[in-house]
Write a sequence for this structure.
């Protein structure tokens, strides 16, 4: 469909929408029609973004809105973005790299998928996988080698649908201050 959203993730903290609202990055009541996501709070962009949600009435009565909402996801979230293609892995412990055409990358990826299936179980789920080279237990977020710091599993994730990157960056600064930690970012094309 040619649409994209940015995600900023915060492993290990609780959800917080107050800061974004106070800084004018979201506004109004929840509007789930502004993002293609389910069962999470979604809000329209606020005045600090310069973005406006438009509504289009179709002849059959359907209303289509600009997909520019902000979705507050969590308390557990998987960013599948790095796995859309077979990812490269870099172990922060032993430094080993496994690339896309390396069979070990496929085996490492399989281990990540096993973790995904158990991540939603239990009160304090592990985010760790075992490095196939040195056998160290590594947070999966630190294992993915996908250029700039990204994340795979997160307690809190905020999706920004079709926002310009510089506007996401400004909102992420506000979130970083509120969350007390630097975000990790991912992008997903849908
Ligand atoms: Zn290792």
């Amino acid at each position: 469909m040619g649409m994209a959203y940015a995600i900023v993730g915060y492993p290990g903290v609780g959800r917080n929408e107050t800061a974004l609202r106070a800084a004018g990055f979201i506004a109004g009541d929840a509007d789930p029609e502004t993002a293609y996501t389910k069962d999470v709070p979604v809000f329209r962009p606020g005045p600090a973004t310069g973005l406006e949600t438009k509504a289009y009435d179709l002849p059959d009565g359907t209303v289509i809105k600009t997909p520019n909402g902000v979705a507050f996801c969590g308390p557990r979230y998987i960013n599948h973005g790095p796995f859309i293609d077979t990812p490269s892995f870099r172990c922060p412990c032993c430094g080993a790299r496994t690339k896309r055409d390396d069979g070990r990358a496929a085996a490492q990826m399989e281990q990540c998928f096993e973790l995904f299936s158990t991540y939603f179980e239990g009160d304090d789920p592990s985010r760790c996988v075992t490095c196939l080279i040195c056998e160290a237990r590594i947070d999966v977020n630190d294992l993915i080698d996908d250029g700039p710091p990204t994340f795979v599993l997160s307690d809190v994730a905020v999706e920004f649908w079709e926002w310009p990157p510089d506007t996401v960056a400004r909102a992420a600064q506000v979130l970083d201050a509120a969350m007390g930690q630097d975000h990790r970012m991912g992008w997903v094309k849908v």
